[in-house]
Amino acid sequence: MPGKRRPARQPRASPAQGGGLQRLSRPPPLAIRHLDVGDNSDPGREFPRSAVPAIRGHRESVVVACPVHQTRQVSYGLRRATTVWRGLVLFCRAFLRAATTWKFVVVLRRFTRDVTTWLVLVVFLLGASVGFLVLFADRWSWHTNQIVASHSSPVVLWAALLCAQTGLWALALLWLLPTIRSLPGEYRRANRNEIVGSSIVILAIVIAISVSGMVHPMWPNYFRGHAIKLGMLTILGGLVGLVAARGVWSVHGGLKLLARRDLGSDESLKTFLSLRDDAGRFLSVLGAIIGLLVLTTGAQRRAVLWYSSHHDIHTHYGFELVLLYGFLFTVLVAAVYLPTSLTITEVGNRIRDAVFPPVPASRPEWADRLEKREKLGQLLGLEQGPVVRLKAGVAILTPLIGSLVGLLLSAK
Question: What's the pTM?
Answer without folding.
Answer: 0.69
